[in-house]
Amino acid sequence: MTEVRARMSECSVANDGLVQRHRQVLAIACAVGVLAFALQALPDGRVAVRGFPQVSLPQTCASRSLLGLRCPGCGLTRSIIHLAEGDWRASWHDHRLGGLMAVLIALQIPYRLLALRRTGRPLIPTRWLAVLSYALIALLVGNWLVDLVAGRVSSS
Predict the structure, then answer these.
(1) Contact (CB, 8 A) for 123 and 111
(2) Per-residue pLDDT of the chain (156 residues; tens, 9 = 90+)
(3) How many CB atoms lie within 10 A of CB 104?
(4) Phi, psi of 41 (to 5 degrees)
(5) CB distance 118 to 71 below 8 Å
(6) Under 8 Å CB-to-CB from 40, ≥6 apart: which residues?
(7) Which of 74, 87, 104, 143 could lock 82 by a disulfide, CB 3.0 to 4.6 Å apart?
């Protein structure tokens, strides 16, 4: 009987961690959506708060700041901002996977809300989530390799 209670306690703790994770990702996805409309991409490649172009945000990519090289995610922020403005061409120019990332971020909102309602069982099997995650990483690295071969990885 004590074994059953111990297992139930472990499941409860694991479930609490999963609920917390769903809430965190939901909050991040909502924040990204709000920021996509609250920020603007400047012509020189910097990002600023909409209406205050003189106050640009600091560079957040360590690879770009320290090494002068674009990482696989460089340009995603500007790409998603351009999508929020309806400028598909600029979005594609800043990062070819910006549209896909925007869709995946937007899908996090209904997915996480449903997952919070159904905490007992996952909506998507863990194996498929891992496959999707690895596929996304492969796409980001593949896109970066295309830029590397084309000579577009240097930020100068």
Answers:
(1) yes
(2) 566 554 544 555 567 889 999 999 999 999 999 999 999 999 988 999 999 999 999 988 888 888 888 999 999 999 999 999 999 999 999 999 999 999 999 999 999 999 999 887 888 998 999 999 999 999 999 999 999 999 988 865
(3) 14
(4) -90, 125
(5) no
(6) 47, 48, 49, 50, 53, 81, 85
(7) 87
Q: Using an 8 Å Cβ cutoff, are 64 and 155 in contact?
A: yes
- How far does Cα 95 stand from its chain's mean position? 13
Nearest to 101 by CA among 143, 156, 64: 143
- In this structure, the number of other CB atoms found within 10 A of the CB of residue 66 comes to 9
Label residue 18 exposed, middle or buried (CB < 10 Å: 0-12, 13-18, 19+).
middle
Cα–Cα distance list, 98 to 86, 122, 136, 143 (Å)? 13, 27, 12, 11
* Closest alpha carbon to 90 in 80, 98, 82: 82
Tokens of 116: 């919070």
Q: Hey, where are the domains in the chain?
A: 2-150
The answer to whether residues 26 and 109 touch, using CB atoms and an 8 Å cutoff, is yes
Token pair for residue 105? 């971020």
Structure tokens at 130: 């891992």
